[in-house]
Amino acid sequence: MAASCIAASELLHNIKLIPYHKASCVLIRRISTSKLKCSSQPVAEATSAPQQLVGVVGLEIHAQISSNTKLFSGSSVQFLAPPNSLVSFFDASLPGTLPVLNRRCVEAAVMTGLALNCTINKKSLFDRKHYFYADLPAGYQITQQRRPVAVDGVLTYSFLGGKKRNQVIRKNVHIKQIQLEQDSGKSLHDDVNNQTLIDLNRAGVGLMELVMEPDMSGGEEAAAAVRELQLILQALGTCQGNMSEGQLRVDANVSVHRAGEPLGVRTEVKNINSIRFLAKAIDFEIQRQTDVVQRGGTVKNETRAYDSKSGETVPMRDKEGLQDYRFMPEPNLPPLIVFEDNASLPAGIDACQAVVVQTIKEGLPELPGIKRDRLVQAYGILPEHSFTLVNEDGLMEYFEAVMRATKMEPRKVIGWVTNELVGLLKQQNTSVSHSPVTPAALAELLELQEAGHISSSVAKQVFQEMWRSPGKTGAEIIREQDLGLVSDAAKLHRVCQKVVDSHPDEVCAIRSGNKKVLNRLMGLVQKELKGRADPVLVREILQEKTS
Ligand code: ADP
Ligand code: MG
Q1: 398, 388 in Cβ contact below 8 A?
Q2: 56-73: per-residue pLDDT in tens?
Q3: From the CA of 105, how far away is ligand 1's center (Å)?
Q4: H-helix or E-strand containing 161?
Q5: Whose CA is nearest to atom 13 of ligand 1?
Q6: How far is 376 from 386, CA to CA, in rounded Å?
Q7: Where in the cell is it found (predicted)?
């Protein structure tokens, strides 16, 4: 095959990109790389009216394993490295090179499987899946078709739904399997010079393919499930989960049917690079198929691409012709064996050479769903706040650190963390770990407010100032800028009198029973004193003066 010869030889001379003639590419594009199947499984739960068409969604997700080296070779894994700089002879499919399985990748897949409640197959197998594409120099991908490493799991995800979007809705999606497989290289189509360039840096990087059952019904659910998966993978450290960098690639299988009837013909939507677009692409596709069926047409089994500019899905290639991948066992890799626990290791095999499920299980971190439940339970905060805390990397740890350093009620602290802190982080486009205000410093500021040394509006002002001048404590700023609470009765009386005198209409309204107007006067007093007036005293004084 010409492609791999060019790839291999030029690679060795460290040429930046490998050209591949465009004409061949056109040919290649016509060959489908996806599978064809029209499932006829009945849907487990049918919630809508019998005659109405409902959407059915099943996701196939490729998660790039966080690992220093590739699945079967020692080449480094790195994003945005110079083209073809991370390619070993094996990655370029030079004859005579052999795969050596990366234990880290196996451990990552087992860990992910455990976190998703899968059964871990003690013995799994590698297979060759053949197809011809310029960025696949071997002409086949090593994958796990007959017996994947993990099967039969479930992902529990939750999202905020209901009218006010504050009700926690919890759902399950079944995981059919998780398989280990190699990534392909990348083709870059250079239309100006009418050629295709091949970058093999990504060729052979370890992927986990997660296949979900068609358990979901629309974009919102799919988006929530992927977000949950992303958080789980990040918590485990098995995949960084960045969709825009291609670490998490989601293909959405979408069909429509009438509840109670067999599933409809599905389309597969590709090229979705964010969770937001995933939801939009799915909802668009459900609507499009609904229109087709309602007009009496039939949905074609095809692969479609999502165009984020138009918000539409467009046909890419049809899948009517069955693709034969000529699956065969990978002859250069023995079955992959993992062990239940140290006791089941055969004699002569050291625990550090083997993959031991029990050891991985013991190392599982607290997962996002558990974190949220614990936060609501332990601190009595609202579920939506628990979502915010878990969504942002490091925010939960920040909140808990503040809680350890103060005796304040969690409900008072949570607003500071989810509004004030998150607001400034967003504004400055930075992460919690770079917050110039430490949890201890925030706790100290909150204590000052709680003790009545400053008003809440001044506390916010001080917080912003602390942000601008890292290292300065709240107390220092309050002292330097003289922001302490004014509770000097004579001074307060003077300011209140001035406000009362200059607002006869308001005073009149209060006197005739409209007590709410007092708040306006309080606001005016605070304005005069730059938010520093003791609110309790001001209220008392104003009440006295307007009675
Ligand atoms: P294949 O053998 O063709 O790969 P699978 O049964 O493995 O088909 O399913 C592939 C993906 O398509 C899975 O994620 C599954 O949930 C989804 N899927 C299967 N049938 C449907 C359908 N009718 N509607 C929506 N998704 C489907
Ligand atoms: Mg499949």
Answers
A1: no
A2: 999 999 999 999 999 999
A3: 25
A4: strand 150-161
A5: 58
A6: 7
A7: Mitochondrion
Using alpha carbons, list the distances in angstroms from residue 123 to 119, 331, 399.
11, 16, 43
Closest ligand, as measured to the CA of 179? 2
Q: How does pLDDT run across 147-169, given as a tens digit for each residue?
A: 999 999 999 999 888 888 888 89
Query: CA-to-CA distance for 297 and 271, rounded, in angstroms?
Result: 26
Per-residue model confidence as pLDDT tens digits over 422-439: 999 999 999 999 999 999
Ligand 1 atom closest to 60 (CA):
14
Q: Is 268 in the pocket of ligand 1 (CB under 6 A)?
A: no
Residue of 105, 94, 109, 257 lying closest to 179 (CA atoms): 109
Ligand 1 in contact with 42 (CB < 6 A)? no
**CB distance 253 to ligand 1 below 6 Å:** yes
Give residue 321's pLDDT: 67
Q: How far is the CA of 36 from the centre of ligand 1 (A)?
A: 9
Identity at 316, one-letter amino acid code: M
Q: Which ligand lies nearest the alpha carbon of 265? A: 1
286 lines ligand 1 (CB under 6 A): no
Calculated CA dihedral for residues 287, 291, 293, 294, nearest 10 degrees: 130
Helix (H) or strand (E) segment spanning residue 287 = helix 275-294
Ligand 2 midpoint to CA 35 (Å): 7
Helix (H, G, I), strand (E, B) or coil at 213: coil
pTM of the model: 0.82
Q: Over the range 103-119, which residues count as b (16 or more CB within 10 Å of their CB) and which as e?
A: ebbbbbbbbbbbbbebe
In the chain the domains, ranked by start, together with CATH numbers, are 2-33+51-329 (no CATH), 368-480 (no CATH), 489-546 (1.10.10.410)
| Residue-wise pLDDT tens digits, 349-400 | 888 889 999 999 999 999 999 999 999 999 999 999 999 999 988 999 999 9
Mutate to test the pocket of ligand 1, among 209, 253, 270, 323 (most ligand atoms within 8 A of CB): 253
CA 521 – CA 497 distance, rounded (Å) = 11
Task: Spell out the long-range contacts of 428-431 with Cβ–Cβ below 8 A and sequence spacing 24 or more.
Answer: 431/393, 431/394
| Residue with CA nearest ligand 1 atom 19 | 39
- Is the distance from the beta carbon of residue 83 to the nearest atom of ligand 1 less than 6 Å? no
1 C-alpha vs ligand 2 centroid, how far in Å? Answer: 28
DSSP letter string, 223-257: HHHHHHHHHHHHHHTS----TTTTSEEEEEEEEEE
Distance (Å) from CA 141 to ligand 1 centroid = 20
Closest listed residue to residue 111, CA positions, set 307, 284, 338: 338
* Residue linked to tokens 């487990």: 44
Tokens of 51: 């005659």
Closest CA relative to residue 121, chosen from 414, 383, 399, 340: 340
In the sheet with 195-199, reading across from the earlier edge strand, the strands are: 18-21, 195-199, 186-190
Which amino acid makes up residue 461?
Q
CB 126 within 8 A of CB 329: yes
